[in-house]
Write a structure and sequence with these properties.
The complex is a heterodimer of chains A (385) and B (478). Chain A is of the alpha+beta class. Chain A is built from twelve helices and 19 strands. Among the domains of chain B are: 87 residues, Uridine Diphospho-n-acetylenolpyruvylglucosamine Reductase, domain 2 (2-Layer Sandwich), CATH 3.30.43.10; 118 residues, 2-Layer Sandwich (Uridine Diphospho-n-acetylenolpyruvylglucosamine Reductase, domain 3), CATH 3.30.465; 111 residues, Alpha-Beta Plaits (2-Layer Sandwich). Chain B is built from 16 helices and 20 strands. Chain B is globular and about 70 Å long. The chains are: A alpha+beta (385), B alpha+beta (478). Bound molecules: flavin-adenine dinucleotide.
Chain lengths: 385, 478
C-alpha cells in the first residue's frame, strides 16, 4: 500500500453528488496503470475509472477509494485514411481525434458535446452518443475493437481494426457503455465516415412543444435524412435546429425539401452552420448540484417524456433529439428525482442518472450481476452503466 | 433417450415438434459446412417462446447439450452437433409479431426468414437492412447469432447495428428480455454482447429489429473490368475517396460464367474478367453525382464499360445473380468451400493475388465473389468431397488464406463466424488471455457450457490459466 500512496501524489478529484474528495491517479503509461491496478486489487481498494472527468458518470464514486484517469494515455495509434478506421489511446481528446481524421477527409462520429474536454475512453465507457446519432447511430455501433485492462491486471483485446469482423465474441459491445464497471479501456478503434462537403442548419422557434415536435416529424420523414435534429427550451420558447450535411447536391436538395415542407426556417450555411451546429451540440445540460438524466424512449413517446419532465420540474434544462428518442435534462432541484424517474420509466423510458450518489451501486439484473462477477471477479471497478 | 423424458418433451411441443427418428435426424447432421457431420441425438422444434422455455428447462434437468439452429445455412459448422446433443430449431417460430411504422422497428420470432421480414415491412416504406445472400432461406435468429452481413451492410452495417432487442432463453431456462425499441436501454449492452455469440450464450426466440426507410432512388451500376486486379484497385480508391454507395461487390470471371450458365443468368458480360456490382442509395441528385464519381474511378482503373440498370427488374436480376452465385457454382464441382476472411480495404488486391497463388499451388479451382467494399473476401474453392486428397488440399488452402489475411492486419471471418471450421485458428488473432475473457463472459450466461459446446473458442487448458495466481506487485503484500 505504501508504494501506491507514494505514487498517488497530491491530486484530488470530486464527483458530483459525493461530498468527499478522492485521491486521483493519472498514470503516465500503460505499465504504470497495470501496476496501479495490481496494487489496488491487492490492497483491497476500489477504483472508479474516469477519462478527463468532464462528465463523471453516475457517482458510484460513493464507493470508490480512488479515481483513476486514463487521460495521460494519449495519441493516435493508427489512422488508415484509405481504410476509414482510426485507433487511439483512451485519453485522446475527441477534438484532437476529430482534427486528425479530418485531415484524411473523415468525420469522427460520435460528434460529442465539448469534444475538447471529452476523451475517447470516457465517451465509449460512458455510452455517450453524439449529436449525429440520428444519421449515424449510437457510438457503440462504431467501436470496432478495444484493448482493455482487467481487474487482474491483464491486458486483453477484443474485435479488431476492421470495418467488418465476426471473429470471436464482441466483448467491446459489453465494455462500451459499462461506465467503468467492468474494466479500464486502454485503446479503441472506430469506424469513420466521409467528412461532409457542405453543411446547412435550419432553425425554427416555436411557442409550443407540440408545434416543435410537428416540425421535427416533417424533418425526419423520408427522403430527408438530417444529421442532427435537436430541441431545447429557453425563455419559454422551443428552439429546433436541424443540421443537414453531406455532398453539396444532397444538402441543396434537402434544403429545398425542408422549405417546401416547413416554410419559415432561418438558414445558415458553411462556417456559420458549423458554428451553430457546434453550439447546439455543446448546449446539452450538465449535472452539477443536481444530477443529470439521460432519458431514452421510443421516438413516438418523446412528447410524453418531455411533458412528464416539465410537469415535475418546469424549470428543468433540457436538450432532446426527438427523432432519436433521447433527452438530456437537469431538473431544477433534486427534490422530486425518484418520482420523476418512476414516472419516466412508467412511460417505458430508460433513465440513466449522472452525478447522483444515490443511484444503485450494484447491478440488480441477475445476468449483469453474473457478468460483473465474471469479468471483474475482484469487484475492483465501481463504475456503473 | 429416456422415454419418460421424451414424453415430457412431446407434451410441450407436440409430435410435430419432436424428431426422434434416426433417418429424419440425419437431415441435421451438418449445416452448410458439409465437411463435418454428426447426427444429433434429438431434434426439437418449439412453436414459441413459452414452449422453448419449457423445453430448455427439461433439457437442463437432463444436462443435455443444446445446438440452436435456424435454417442451417451457416457455413462455419456453427449449427453442427459435432458433440451430439439436441438440435433446437426455430423453424416453427415464424410469426412477425409487430411492425411499428412510427418508431421504425419490427418484432419477430427468431425463425422468421430474413426476406420475409423485408416483405412484411415493405408496404410501410420500410426495410430491414442486413441482406445476406442466403436471405431467401436464413433466419433472423441465425443472422443474430452470426452477426451476419450481406452486400448492403457496406453502408448499413452488419446485423448488430439493426438489432434493438431480444428475447433469449438461457441454458438454465431463464427467459431474458434484453433491450427493446428504446434507443439506449438501462444497464449493460446485453443485446450487443449476444449478437454474434454463435448460439453459445442462449437461444434467441424473439428479435426486435430496427427498420430503415426505403431510399428515394437506387441506382445499380455494373462496371466491367479486363482484370480482377483493376476491380480491386478501383474499390480501394472508392473507399479512399470516401464515396458512400450502399453496396460494392466483386464477381470474377469464373463466377460470372457459373451464374450465366445457371437459371439465375443476370446478363453479366462474357467479355469481362471481373465486374463491380454497385448500388447507390439516396436522394436522386446525390445518387447521380456519386454514380458519376464511381464511374470515373472505375474507368481510371481500367473499366471498359459502365452499365446502369435501367429499371427495377434489371436491378433485381443483377442482384439475384450475385446472391445466387454460390449456388451456381454447383455447375463447376459437386462441392464448394466458401472461405470467408476480411482484410483492410487497402489490401484487397494484394490478398486476392495471394489467394490465387495459394490455390494455384495446390491445383485448386478458385473463384471470387465478395463484399469488396467491406474488405470481406470469399475465395471459393470448388472440389469433390469424395476425393480425400483434394479435401485435404482445400483445407490447407483455407488455412493459408487465413494466414495471409492475418499477416496484413485482417481477420478470420467477416460474416460467417468461427463455428467449428475456424475454432482452432483463433490463436492467430487472439492471445490466451483474450480467449479467456470470452470464456468468462460465456460462463456468466451459460455456466455449464451446454449451449452449442465446442464452437468458436478453442478448447485449451484454460481452466488452469483462469486460476493462475495473481501477480504480486512490488512493495505489496498478498
Ligand atoms: C448461399 C449462401 C449465401 C450466404 N451468404 C451470406 C452473406 O451474404 N452474408 C452472411 O453473413 N452470411 C451468408 N451466408 C451464411 C449464412 O446464411 C448466415 O450465417 C445466416 O445468418 C445463418 O442463418 P441460419 O438461419 O441458416 O442459421 P444456422 O446456420 O441454422 O445457424 C447459424 C448459427 O446460429 C446459431 N443460431 C441459429 N439460430 C439461433 C437462435 N435463434 N438463437 C441462438 N443461436 C442461433 C446456430 O447455433 C449457429 O451457430 C450464406 C450461406 C449460404 C449457404
Amino acid at each position: 500500500m505504501s508504494s501506491l500512496a507514494e505514487r498517488l501524489g497530491p491530486l484530488r478529484g470530486r464527483i458530483p453528488g459525493v461530498e468527499a474528495e478522492l485521491p486521483l491517479a493519472v498514470p503516465e503509461s500503460e505499465e504504470a496503470l497495470v501496476e496501479l491496478v495490481n496494487e489496488a486489487r491487492v490492497g483491497g481498494l476500489r477504483l472508479l475509472p474516469i477519462g478527463s472527468g468532464s462528465r463523471l458518470g453516475g457517482a458510484y464514486g460513493a464507493q470508490a477509494d480512488l479515481l483513476v484517469s486514463t487521460r495521460a494515455l494519449t495519441g493516435v495509434v493508427a489512422y488508415e485514411p484509405g481504410d476509414g478506421t482510426v485507433t487511439a489511446l483512451a485519453g485522446t481528446r475527441m477534438s484532437e481525434l476529430a482534427s486528425a481524421v479530418l485531415a484524411g477527409g473523415h468525420r469522427l462520429t460520435p460528434d460529442v458535446p465539448r469534444p475538447e474536454e471529452a476523451t475517447l475512453g470516457g465517451v465509449i465507457a460512458d455510452g455517450f452518443s453524439g449529436s449525429d446519432r440520428l444519421r449515424f447511430g449510437p457510438t457503440r455501433h462504431h467501436v470496432l475493437g478495444m484493448r482493455v485492462l482487467s481487474s487482474d491486471g491483464e491486458v486483453t483485446k477484443t474485435g479488431g481494426r476492421l470495418v467488418k469482423n465476426v471473429t470471436g465474441f464482441e466483448l467491446h459491445r459489453l465494455y462500451a457503455g459499462s461506465g467503468g464497471g467492468l474494466c479500464l479501456i486502454l485503446e479503441a478503434s472506430l469506424r469513420l465516415f466521409a467528412a461532409p462537403a457542405a453543411r446547412a442548419c435550419a432553425t425554427f422557434t416555436c411557442d409550443s412543444l407540440e408545434a416543435a415536435l410537428a416540425i421535427s416529424e416533417h424533418l425526419g420523414a423520408p427522403p430527408l435524412e438530417p444529421t442532427a435534429v435537436s430541441l431545447s427550451l429557453g425563455d419559454g420558447a422551443w428552439a429546433l435546429t436541424a443540421t443537414l450535411d453531406g455532398r453539396e447536391e444532397r444538402v441543396t436538395r434537402e434544403r429545398a425539401l425542408v422549405d417546401e415542407r416547413v416554410p419559415g426556417a432561418a438558414w445558415c450555411a458553411g462556417a456559420e452552420a458549423d458554428s451553430l451546429h457546434a453550439t447546439c451540440r455543446d448546449d446539452s445540460p450538465r449535472e452539477g448540484a443536481v444530477p443529470s438524466l439521460r432519458i431514452s424512449a421510443r421516438p413516438s413517446r418523446a412528447r410524453d417524456v418531455i411533458e412528464v419532465l416539465l410537469r415535475h420540474s418546469p424549470e428543468a434544462a433540457l436538450q432532446a433529439q426527438p427523432l432519436v428518442g433521447t433527452v438530456e435534462a437537469v431538473p431544477g432541484s433534486r427534490a422530486d428525482l425518484d418520482a420523476l424517474c418512476a414516472d419516466l420509466r412508467g412511460l417505458g423510458a430508460s433513465v440513466r442518472l449522472r452525478g447522483a450518489a444515490e443511484q444503485g451501486a450494484r447491478p440488480t439484473n441477475p445476468l449483469e450481476q453474473r457478468l460483473k462477477a465474471a469479468v471483474d471477479p475482484h469487484d475492483l471497478f465501481c463504475g456503473r452503466p | 433417450m429416456d422415454s419418460g423424458f421424451l414424453r415430457a418433451l412431446e407434451q410441450v411441443v407436440g409430435p410435430e415438434g419432436l424428431t426422434t427418428d434416426s433417418t429424419r435426424r440425419r437431415a441435421y447432421e451438418c449445416d452448410g459446412l458439409a465437411l463435418v457431420r454428426r447426427v444429433p441425438d434429438l431434434v426439437l422444434a418449439p412453436l414459441d417462446t413459452s414452449q422453448a422455455r419449457e423445453c430448455m428447462r427439461l433439457l437442463r434437468e437432463e444436462g443435455l447439450a443444446v445446438i440452436p439452429r435456424g435454417a442451417g445455412t451457416g457455413l462455419a459448422g456453427g449449427a453442427t452437433p459435432h458433440e451430439g446433443g439436441v438440435v433446437f430449431k426455430t423453424s416453427r417460430m415464424r410469426r412477425v409479431l409487430e411492425v411499428s411504422e412510427r418508431d421504425r422497428f419490427a418484432r419477430v420470432e427468431a425463425g422468421v426468414v430474413n426476406v420475409d421480414l423485408t416483405s412484411a415491412c415493405s408496404h410501410h416504406g420500410l426495410r430491414y437492412a442486413p441482406d445476406p445472400s442466403s436471405q431467401q432461406a436464413c433466419t433472423i435468429g441465425g443472422n443474430v447469432a452470426n452477426n451476419s452481413g450481406g452486400p448492403h451492410c457496406f453502408r448499413y452495417g452488419a446485423t448488430t447495428r439493426s438489432i434493438l432487442g431480444l428475447t433469449v432463453i438461457t441454458a438454465e431456462g431463464e427467459v431474458m428480455e434484453l433491450g427493446g425499441p428504446e434507443p439506449d436501454p438501462e444497464g449493460l449492452d446485453l443485446v450487443g454482447c449476444f449478437v454474434g455469440c454463435e448460439g453459445m450464450l442462449g437461444v434467441a426466440t424473439e428479435v426486435t429489429c430496427r427498420l430503415i426507410p426505403a431510399p428515394e432512388t437506387t441506382e445499380t451500376l455494373l462496371a466491367l473490368f479486363p482484370s480482377l486486379d483493376g476491380a480491386c484497385e478501383a474499390v480501394t480508391e472508392l473507399i479512399a475517396e470516401n464515396l458512400e454507395p450502399s453496396a460494392i461487390e466483386i464477381l470474377d470471371r469464373l463466377t460470372i460464367e457459373a451464374v450465366e450458365a445457371s437459371v439465375l443468368a443476370a446478363g453479366y458480360p462474357d467479355e469481362a474478367d471481373a465486374v463491380l456490382l454497385i448500388d447507390i442509395d439516396g436522394l436522386a441528385e446525390e445518387v447521380r453525382a456519386t454514380a458519376q464519381d464511381v464511374g470515373e474511378i472505375a474507368r481510371a482503373h481500367g473499366a471498359f464499360e459502365i452499365r446502369t440498370a435501367t429499371d427495377a427488374k434489371e436491378r433485381a436480376r443483377l442482384w439475384a445473380g450475385r446472391k445466387g452465385a454460390f449456388g451456381a457454382m454447383g455447375r463447376i464441382a459437386p462441392d464448394l468451400y466458401v472461405a470467408d476472411v476480411v482484410v483492410p480495404r487497402t489490401k484487397l488486391k494484394e490478398v486476392v493475388l495471394a489467394t490465387t497463388e495459394i490455390c494455384q499451388a495446390r491445383g485448386l479451382k478458385l473463384s471470387n465473389v465478395f463484399h469488396a467494399g467491406d474488405g470481406n473476401l470469399h475465395p471459393n474453392i470448388s472440389y469433390d468431397r469424395r476425393d480425400e486428397v483434394e479435401v485435404a488440399r482445400v483445407l490447407e488452402a483455407g488455412t493459408e488464406i487465413m494466414k495471409a489475411c492475418v499477416a496484413v492486419g485482417g481477420s478470420l471471418s467477416g460474416e460467417h463466424g468461427i463455428g467449428l471450421e475456424k475454432r482452432d485458428e483463433m490463436h492467430r488473432v487472439f492471445s490466451e488471455a483474450d480467449l479467456d475473457a470470452m470464456l468468462r463472459v460465456r460462463a456468466a450466461w451459460d455456466p455449464d457450457e451446454r449451449m452449442n459446446p465446442g464452437k468458436a473458442i478453442p478448447v485449451r487448458g484454460c481452466m488452469e490459466i483462469k486460476t493462475k495466481p495473481l501477480p504480486v506487485p512490488s512493495g505489496g503484500s498478498s
